[in-house]
């Protein structure tokens, strides 16, 4: 091949690399792709073909080299040019106030306190991943290392090269000769769940949490395995930096102060990183004084459960680099920075026993009775074990020391046993063959994970759960009918089905514990108000398996009457929007049961008259076929109210934002869903905007 043709090939390869790098940045860092997957694949295939024909033109920073190299025999060691230090921890408000006070006093003595009298900080997230150091030389990625002991870490270059959000080449106008950037490699919750599902399907190791999954992925001796793992990277600091200035290369280090750095603030450095193409998390803010720090902590704590990845606190850093130099270091930690930890979401305790709870649909759920442990801000004594298969998969036994996890308002769960602490007398759990409440046989369908009591409404546990469900806000909305009263009504034998609720009177209700005359009167008023429910609400209240609030309303709109639904065959049911074979079969089975038809007849006899919801044409519904997401607190509507209005207009409400989302309705303290909507270009409405969209409905 002529020199001219080789040059043309080299230019095309370089152009493809730059184009693919740009698309990788938009996809993995900005979450805002501009081309289809197919178009991206075409670019990658062209580049791979050209490199295959011209192997001498392959470079380590080519996008094709992310697929992973041959397995390593072992990890080498890397001496950090600048030590990777740890941070001091704060757990109480007083710790943060003391940190701010010391900084203010030191900077005031040095004449460096701002005129407004408060220290300025950069507040960021404390990721729960694996800390790494990436080294770039002349803008090209050349090395990655773990923290190790702070001075020396493990060489994980081949593995980090496979992480798509790590740029293999920096871009911009001010590319340093050397940049040692520090950050965190992590895995999102969604990616973690997918990975564990794949691991389980292949019969391979299940990871305890996203942090362990990320760490395990980076320490694979075979980089090709790492390449298959969905890892992300966020930059938050630096070690060594060498810049070419006036024809000379000057050395700068984090610990050496701020003289002539590319920026004079930590926040400015993060902006510089982002301009170079390095991913920097957007949830960061400049704040002033202890009040600003604590406000950021409270805000992020409230949004923690909504974040797509795990964090275990927030980090505060004095923003001025010159001020950082004055404050300096103590032992292994900088004086100018502090990690403010959230209450632990994982702790260890002992499984004292495993009980079984019976749910509304008869599903038997094993529950671990735990030695009390403080986790996630509350004392936990029980934790769900989901089902028998899950217990077997995790190998949890009675007597085990286990890791218990509680995130936000999520029900506590047992994550994994600590095998090393397992006692010799630890016992296996076996699902009972008969219901622990009513003694009926327990069965498990071949295609289901849950075992179920066959007693139906004969089972008091199912009866209680079904009554509580029926009285709920999304069903009949009988205010005042709580679990304690339901327990009494069922235990006394007075109420055997939801139809019996409509035969109660004030006098007998007032005789129950904690029920006075006024409470009884209010409850009867609520029951009477529920005698004419919307058909969809009544259908939902019946507790038909697989029939949620949206499906119940769709069935009501399609058929118009309860009798028509009861008489419909599966073919007719399948004609309803989003009703598939499983739901259709479940509805047919429910109304084929004589005792369920008896309950319907008793409801009618008690004066319950469901109100038909005319089946409107989709064109008459302003949100027909559209999916909306709610986030934050609306000024006038609760989420339930907003959901009902959206559904009444033909729309659906989802819990997550995607490119298929039509609108995001945001109120005060909107979380990450709002940011995701903006990054994807999804229209955002406030409550007034939603009302306008509904057209006054």
Q: Given the structure, what is the number of helices?
A: 25
Q: Ends: how far apart?
A: 72 Å
Report the sheet-strand fraction: 15-25%
Number of strands: 25
Q: Which segments are poorly predicted (pLDDT under 50) over 5 or more consecutive residues?
A: none
- Mean pLDDT over all positions: 86
| CATH topology-level fold name of the largest domain | D-amino Acid Aminotransferase, Chain A, domain 1
Overall shape: globular
The structural domain count equals 6
Report the CATH superfamily of the largest domain.
DNA ligase/mRNA capping enzyme
Q: Specify Rg, calculated over alpha carbons.
A: 30 Å
Major sheet summary line: 7 strands, antiparallel
Catalytic activity: NAD(+) + (deoxyribonucleotide)n-3'-hydroxyl + 5'-phospho-(deoxyribonucleotide)m = (deoxyribonucleotide)n+m + AMP + beta-nicotinamide D-nucleotide
Cofactor: Mg(2+); Mn(2+)
Family: Belongs to the NAD-dependent DNA ligase family. LigA subfamily.
Protein name: DNA ligase
How would you describe what is shown here?
The protein is of the alpha+beta class. The chain has six domains: about 5-65, Orthogonal Bundle (Helix Hairpins), CATH 1.10.287.610; about 100-340, DNA ligase/mRNA capping enzyme (D-amino Acid Aminotransferase, Chain A, domain 1), CATH 3.30.470.30; about 345-420, OB fold (Dihydrolipoamide Acetyltransferase, E2P) (Beta Barrel), CATH 2.40.50; about 455-530, 5' to 3' exonuclease, C-terminal subdomain (DNA polymerase, domain 1, Orthogonal Bundle), CATH 1.10.150.20; about 535-605, Orthogonal Bundle (DNA polymerase, domain 1), CATH 1.10.150.20; about 620-695, Rossmann fold (3-Layer(aba) Sandwich), CATH 3.40.50. The protein is built from 25 helices and 25 strands. Strands 15, 16, 17, 18, 19, 20 and 21 form a seven-stranded antiparallel β-sheet that branches. Strands 2-14-11-3-10 form a five-stranded mixed β-sheet. Strands 5-4-7-8-9 form a five-stranded antiparallel β-sheet. Helix 3 runs antiparallel to helix 9, helix 12 packs across helix 13 (about 485-490) and helix 17 (about 535-540) packs across helix 18 (about 550-560). The radius of gyration is 30 Å and the shape is globular. The N and C termini lie far apart (about 70 Å). The mean pLDDT is about 85. Its cofactor is Mg(2+); Mn(2+).
